[in-house]
Amino acid sequence: MTMIENSRRDGNGSVQPPLSQAVGYVVVVVIGLVIAFVMMIITKVLKKTTGEDNKKTEMFMTANRTVQTGLTASAVISSWLWTTAILGSSFVGYDYGVAGPFWFAAGCSPMIVFFALLGISCKRKIPEAHTSLEVVRIRYGRTAHAVFMTLCLVNNIFACANMLLGAAAVISAVTGMHVIAATFLLPVGVTVYTFVGGIKATFLTDYFHTAIILIIVCYFSIKAFTIDEVGSIGRLYDLVQAAAQRHPVSGNQDGAYLTMTSKRAMLFGILHICSNFGLVIMDTSYFIKAFSAAPSSVVPGYTIGGVAYFAIPWALGTIMSSVAVGLENTPLFPTYPRRMTSSEVTGGLVLPYAAITIAGKGGAAAILLITFMAVTSTLSAQVIAVSSILSFDIYREYFNKNASDRDIIRASHFGVIFFAAFSAGFSTMLHYVGIDLGWTLYMLGVVTCPGIFPMAFTILWRRQNTAAAILSPVLGMATGIGVWLGTAQHFYGSVSVAATGQILPCVYGTVASAFSPILYSVIITLLRPQNYDWNDFKKEKLALEKLDSDLTTVHTHGKNPRHDSNVEDGEHEGSLDPKELKRWGRIAAFWSIATFLGHWVIWPLPMYGSKYVFGKAFFSAWVVVAIIWLWLTMLVAIFYPIVDGGIQQTLQVYRGLRSDGHRNKVANPQTPPSPSIVGSTKGVKGTDEI
């Protein structure tokens, strides 16, 4: 290891990249294009064998609303598997101790499960929708539509910037690749496969990327304890305790890393859960995936995915930040003999440095790969979300009411390319003004939260009126930004990048952005309450082919078959029975409350109040449970989609490739393409499984 250690540093103590630039370009460009090429082949095969035609908008945007529970759960895990989660959980663990990764995880799971409630409510009330913004427009009109469209686009822009900043910094650190080159090249492969495959490509690549990421993360969870300097969980405990003696953690009980009594970690938890509610509810990609799921798959898919996801930031952040803290003063660590600088920490380099410490160049390569996989997987969801807004909510609504399939797909393709380029440019701008992963992670909620409750009320509360829907998020954002900047000035004496990136101003600003719209909405609504009839949603037919043929025709793609064709899709229509959907709604509400109480009240608060500092046995149990949960998450993400319909569809594709007659029959334009494939392939549980 000595030669590797020496090659990491120059004479000034700065860390030299362990991998060459060529490796960076191969991973970012070549692997990205290979994945895109494979997805193009898969898309073509599925079209020939199952009738899944991505030239049809319903297939391109909603995968014909047939995705089953296993793939939905895997896609939900993937949707939250941001580079921010992988890198950020380790950096808050380094800063705050074990409470940091816990609150990072607890700030993610409850809103994923809560989204099951919103998703099933949309399935009940407006089953033909493509985006959440269509729901807003139908209920409140174009002014509200424009307001929420702006909020959603701001959400997507900052979310992408957050991902790209962290990923580009890490790729640059481990390969020496120029950070701007990484920023612009990362979206290339994403653009290609999303351009060709639409939401289906997003689901499939989500699955592939998530599998690779979780295998590597599980590898790190074991590898950390196999090096001589650590050797066991008990030894890691001793190393972290010794580090706390050298560098006590401000605001923690006894300055310890191993305690849940951490004021700054608690503040981060509050900030994180608020901003993540904004990221989920104001991100149209979550609604698209809910609309894409089969009705009976929305609630179990989001609930299983949300609970399973908890282990990833918790286990990875706890183990890798403990390794970084414990071994930072040894020659193994890349920065030795100095500590990591604050810019290295907030730039997301805790995880790469810990990986290099325990696995050398192999660790650096693994981090490079999972960073690439995470950023491209989540970017694809963001890109398809923005392209859906540009095509359905802007082009179709305001420029071409009679848009055909071809027109919509063309607009979607333009949206994919435009947003990929724009997000790279915006991230570059932020980089050059001195903004990094830490700053965007903390301030994200200020701009993503104002629409949370007005959007939720749109779907769940019939009383909210149009004025409340329009004004409350605008006033909420103004309040949040005002509080954020005002508290930065108050606490730190300036409104600068450094001051506005501190945790206190961000917490105050985020909470104000998230909760002030409740007050505004309720007050404005009480002046003249609306009594909205949910059935009005169903009066507007949103399936694209209604523009080309009469809705009373038998074209399955002209009407939403899940909404109207009980006979043809009899095997699956039981899941659309109103009583059944209402039952799923109650189940979603129960799990939403249970997940929040479990992750936010019953588990952490007694530990916070007791001021307990972990003993060796407790820390060992903490880490063991985290690792077991992490491995179970890997099994859910990789094998559940295969068991839940994947095998059947693989057989269907195999039969389709072998049988020319079957292939021609499905490909015949006189035969209605999928979505009716679910009904016509008896025993096949869905056409969107791996």
UniProtKB/TrEMBL annotation:
Annotated Pfam families: SSF (PF00474)
UniProt superkingdom: Eukaryota
Region (Disordered): 554-574, 662-690
Residues annotated as transmembrane: 22-42, 63-82, 102-122, 143-171, 177-196, 203-222, 265-288, 300-327, 366-392, 413-433, 439-461, 468-487, 507-527, 587-605, 617-643
Record key words, sorted: Membrane, Transmembrane, Transmembrane helix, Transport
Topological type in the membrane: Multi-pass membrane protein
CDD domains linked: SLC5sbd_DUR3
Gene Ontology CC: one annotated term: plasma membrane
InterPro entries hit by this protein: DUR, Na/Glc_symporter_sf, Na/solute_symporter
Primary location group: membrane
Recorded family membership: Belongs to the sodium:solute symporter (SSF) (TC 2.A.21) family.
Matches recorded under NCBIfam families: sss
Protein name: Sodium:solute symporter family-domain-containing protein
Species, as recorded: Aspergillus avenaceus
Top-level taxonomy: Eukaryota, Fungi, Dikarya, Ascomycota, Pezizomycotina
